[in-house]
Design brief:
7 helices; mainly alpha
């Protein structure tokens, strides 16, 4: 081997190391709408939506369970005194036990498989092949994977914050709505009470 060939070999090796390995080729994209939609779901495009629905279901189930326990507690007075304390302790344990069993129940559901069944036709019916391929290409990229990974938590936090901000506004709207309707209903029943005014005493209504 000549010195020139040896130097050329060293130069190629050095340049190859400096430039790093070439990126792996992009995996082939599906060509049918249904396959593309399924691949999109597997890439995490609906992960945030599914997580938000599950989180909302979890909160609702816990609220209803606590309401049921409170309703049962109001019926303790009809229980014999010697059994009342035992039942009260069991009721106090129920919310925490329910949350544990609820998590086990939710963990037994394959939400990925459920999402494929629900969302595959929705995406395949609304997007063309080229559009689905472009979306899938993004979700397969590092930026797309980061978005899919973090967006579920962003949606969860944002949904909770939004609910917290809307709750007092909605409560005030409901209170004003019902008060207005009740005043109108009251004025129909007794026109003298319209506007919250007491009816003027008629003849013979004054103190005797």
């Amino acid at each position: 081997m000549t010195m020139r060939m040896l130097c050329a070999g060293i130069l190629v090796a050095v340049l190859g190391c400096a430039g790093g390995a070439s990126p792996p080729p992009e995996p082939p994209l599906p060509t049918s709408r249904s396959e593309l939609a399924r691949a999109l779901i597997d890439a995490g495009v609906v992960r945030a939506s599914v997580a938000g629905v599950v989180d909302g279901f979890r909160r609702l189930a816990i609220e209803r369970a606590r309401a049921n326990v409170e309703a049962l507690e109001t019926r303790l007075e009809s229980v014999a005194p010697e059994r009342r304390e035992v039942i009260r302790r069991r009721l106090d344990e129920m919310p925490a036990r329910f949350e544990e069993d609820l998590e086990a129940f939710l963990g037994s559901i394959d939400f990925d498989d459920l999402a494929r069944d629900l969302y595959t036709p929705l995406y395949s019916e609304r997007f063309e092949v080229a559009e689905l391929q472009a979306i899938l290409r993004f979700y397969r990229s590092p930026a797309g994977q980061a978005f899919a990974r973090e967006n579920a938590e962003i949606v969860r936090i944002g949904t909770a914050e939004l609910a917290g901000r809307l709750e007092p506004t909605l409560a005030a709207f409901m209170r004003e709505w019902f008060e207005t309707r009740l005043r109108g209903l009251q004025s129909e029943i007794d026109p003298g009470l319209e506007g919250g005014r007491s009816p003027s005493p008629g003849p013979g209504d004054g103190p005797g």
